[in-house]
Amino acid sequence: MDFIFSLFGRFHPLLVHLPIGFLLLGILFLFYSGKNKEALFPAIKLAFLWGSWASLLSAATGLLLYLKEGYTFETVKWHLILGCLTTISAIGFYFYLNKVNEDTARKTKFFGLVLVFVLTFTGHLGGSLTHGEDYLFEVLPEGIQEFLGNTHSKEITGLILGKDTWEESLFYADAVQPILSKNCNSCHNPKNNKGGLVLTSFEEVMKGGKNGPVIFSDKFSESPLIHRLLLPKEDKEHMPPKDKRQPSKEEIMLVKQWVESGASFEILLSEAGIKQGMVETFFLKESDFPEADLPQLSPDRLQAIKSRGILVEPLSSNSNLIKVSSINVRDFGDQDWQLLEPIKQHVAILDLSETEVGDQLLTLLKGCDNLTVLKLNKTSLDGESLGFLKECKNLKKLYLNKTQVDQNALSQLNGHSILEIIYVFDTPASLEKSKGKEITHSAKIEYGHYELPSLPTDGKVF
User: How far apart are CA 425 and CA 445, in angstroms?
Assistant: First the structure.
């Protein structure tokens, strides 16, 4: 009998439109000031009566949907709270209307405006749960998205491969997972796993969802993962849905090739029969990096770093510069820099986003003469020591999104001769910009659109 509750919960996206219509109708009548406005008072009460019942029904189905479809509380919290607030407000106002006359009721127009705001925001949160946070923006050209303040898409980098090292890249970790992260994770992540399907890790991909596996181990070519990618976009079974970001034909080809090659975690691109022409569109451009005459790093030194879980990759076979990322080492702190200190001159790209590093790290980067790209997104950095980055003579791009950096901190980097751009989305600096404060800087500063800081209960999605 448990299926009845699941079935009832799935009516929520349909039923939720009823209270919106009834309550908005009642509010519109409340503001009507034409002839015979008194005759509309019974209709106002009736609209709020129906709106109250519809709100109760929507709240009940929404609660069942939350309990049965795998949503976490952190994901639905504000939509759930505001939905309950809307229901209580509608019921309360209906009883209020039954105790007052028409003239008194029309003096409560302010309540109507508040209810419109709550309805709109609640609906927006619900739409984001259903369609993803970028639903309204992702179909727009990137320039328009930036103008409207949508910066989330800039954080999704997608697939990037080294021109001379792609053959040694792991097919799943270095190619397939970035494609899934870019195109599928908004609906299939631990917080919002539609159909019980999570596509954020190899284990979850192989596990499948409520309808079974998405990769058939006995018939790889018939796997739902590639079948639904290849369906016409107009087909209701096509994934991603036609109103969502669509993977390129090259991305689809790579996912298809990975599945048909056996969907292995260990297989390399070269071992799966991938040719250079199939991945050229994803090659990393090297023209932005310095030409450095450096000795090759010893395998033992690199292995010591990799054993800590840190990703180390060469930029190309023609250079001894490297890319270092702590994507798998979230507990990396300032004290761990000693592990990278001996190779700092070789580091061209350093990504320590979402780790435990702070301002002390900035004081340790002296000597990173070839550091070109530095990413410190979502760290506790407040920028007190940003001036030390002037010692990094080749630093061109600096990512400080979702840190505590303000405009005064950014001024320490003014005059850096090479620094081209600083990204400070969702920071105190971007808040100051939204309030009219903006410093003059030698580098371009991308402020994005200010958003409220994440709540402590907000989870991470990778």
Answer: 10
Q: Helix 41-68 vs helix 17-31: angle between axes, to the nearest 10 degrees?
A: 150
DSSP designation for 374: E
Neighbours of 222 (CB within 10 A): 12
- The average confidence (pLDDT) of the chain is 83
If you write DSSP's letter for every residue of 71-116 in order, what string do you get?
--HHHHHHHHHHHHHHHHHHHHHHHHHTTS-HHHHGGGHHHHHHHH
Mean pLDDT of 240-266: 88
Whose structure tokens read 């971007």? 430
331 within 8 A of 310, measured Cβ to Cβ: no
**Measured between alpha carbons, how far is 451 from 347 in angstroms, rounded to an integer?**
32
Q: CATH says 299-446 is which class?
A: alpha beta
Q: Do residues 365 and 342 touch, judged by C-beta distance below 8 A?
A: no
H/E segment holding residue 229:
helix 224-230
Give the angle subtended at the CA of 120 by the CAs of 54 and 16, to the nearest 5°. 25
In DSSP notation, 19-61 reads: HHHHHHHHHHHHH--STTGGGGHHHHHHHHHHHHHHHHHHHHH
- Collapsed DSSP state (helix, strand, coil) of residue 364: helix
**Domain range list for the chain:** 2-131, 155-282, 299-446
143-200 pLDDT, tens digit each: 565 565 554 544 455 677 767 668 878 898 888 988 988 888 777 877 667 788 888 8
pTM of the model: 0.42
Q: Distances in Å between the alpha carbon of 315 and those of 3, 165, 291?
A: 53, 8, 11
Give the burial class of 367: count Cβ atoms within 10 A of its Cβ; 0-12 exposed, 13-18 middle, 19 or more buried: exposed
Residue 275 CB-half CA count within 13 A:
2
Give dist(CA 364, CA 357) in Å, integer: 11
Sign of CA dihedral 86, 89, 92, 94: negative
More confident: 449 or 299:
299
Cα distances (Å, whole numbers) of residue 385 to 58, 173, 348, 352, 389: 52, 35, 21, 16, 8
Preceding peptide of 240 cis, ω within 30°: yes
Predicted local confidence at residue 385, as pLDDT: 93
Give the residue, 319 or 323, on which the prediction is more confident. 323
Q: Based on the number of CB atoms within 10 Å of its own CB, is 318 exposed (0-12), middle (13-18) or buried (19 or more)?
A: exposed
Taking alpha carbons only, the member of 288, 350, 290 closest to residue 320 is: 290
